[in-house]
Fold this sequence. Notes:
By secondary structure, the chain is mainly α. The protein has helices at 20-49, 53-79, 99-124. Helix content is 66%, strand content 0%. The chain is elongated. Mean pLDDT is 89; it is low at 1-9.
Amino acid sequence: MRAVGKKANKTKGEKMEIKDKVTKAINKQINAELYSSYLYLAMAAYFEAKNWPGFGRWMRLQAQEENSHAMKFYDYVLQRGGKVVLDDIKAADAEWKTPLEVFEDVYYHELKGEKERALNCKDAL
Ligand SMILES: [Fe+2]
């Protein structure tokens, strides 16, 4: 992430301070990313239990990707001298009736995530 504004003039090695408001918003996003990872891992388990290994593998990859998003935010907060606060992660659903229902849930979860990210960014400004 490129530094902008007045703080962009800091010399290499100095940490740019991160505002509490921004840290709080990023911590909220870390939780959201971890919840997504948790949900997709639950979906992978559902598929694997139903003997649909291809779907299971794909959902595992999605879970890993969401976890990597969380870790990017985590590393960013630490690099800026902020405090990472890991809150409770909501329990993930574990039952679906069909593979289609799983993928519909993925779709709606992603849409919801988009809206939440936009609101979270607004709160940080
Ligand atoms: Fe993500």
